[in-house]
Amino acid sequence: MATILRDWSYQYQWLYDGISRLAALTVGGETKFRQLALQGLTINQNTEVLDLCCGSGQATNFLVQHSQNVTGLDASPLSINRAKKNVPLAKYVEAFAEDMPFSNNQFDLVHTSAALHEMNSEQLRQIIQEVYRVLKPGGIFTFVDFNRPTNPLFLPGLAIFFWLFETETCWNFINTNILDLLQEVGFNLVDNDSHKSLLYAGGSLQVVQVKK
């Protein structure tokens, strides 16, 4: 059950940015956090990239440094307008992630950062199916999101953060075996770290990379 701080964080950009920077300190800062999901990937100027649930363009800003073909998608018109101002080099589409207005096999890479935990179980499956559809064969889906901490010392802090800023979908997400769900849809795990997600901040953050 989130507090009013959640609503304020979406209403006021300065508050959202401040919270993001504070949370990112657990992995070495905002810059490192926004690039966690891109590690080990080859992205060139012609790579067709979709930044899914792009928000105000925090991660989009790093993607446009690698590719000239970056599209940001978000359901919030406020976020899209902010992203256009913050990162004008990308293209933007206002739409829901579970019903994307793109062709089959359109993108080489789909990226999303700390967004999947906002979805209920049905939405999560629909989004993963849509990502699979819009990716080219051999394309990569990569994301960073919350995970149940492997280090119990991180659980109290994560619980407080969830109480202040998140909803029950976040708790459901960290109790979901996301790797099994991805494989059910048809994805194959990218060969890294013995086919496991990469964990950070005491296991409270995970990076997952899968291939169509």
**Roughly what percent helix?**
25-40%
Could you tell me the mean pLDDT? 84
User: The biggest beta sheet, please?
Assistant: 8 strands, mixed
- CA-atom Rg in angstroms: 16 Å
Secondary structural class: alpha/beta
Cα separation of the termini? 35 Å
What would you say this structure looks like, in words?
By secondary structure, the chain is α/β, with parallel strands linked by helices. The chain starts with a helix and ends with a strand. The radius of gyration is 16 Å and the shape is globular. Strands 1, 2, 3, 4, 5, 6, 7 and 8 form an 8-stranded mixed β-sheet that branches. Strand 1, helix 4 and strand 2 (69-74) form a beta-alpha-beta unit. The chain has 9 helices and 8 strands. The protein has helices spanning 4-11, 13-24, 30-35, 60-63, 77-86, 121-134, 155-165, 168-174, 178-185; strands at 48-52, 69-74, 91-94, 107-113, 135-146, 188-189, 198-200, 205-211. It is 38% helix and 22% strand. Residues 1-6 have low confidence and may be disordered. Helix 1 packs across helix 2 (13-24).
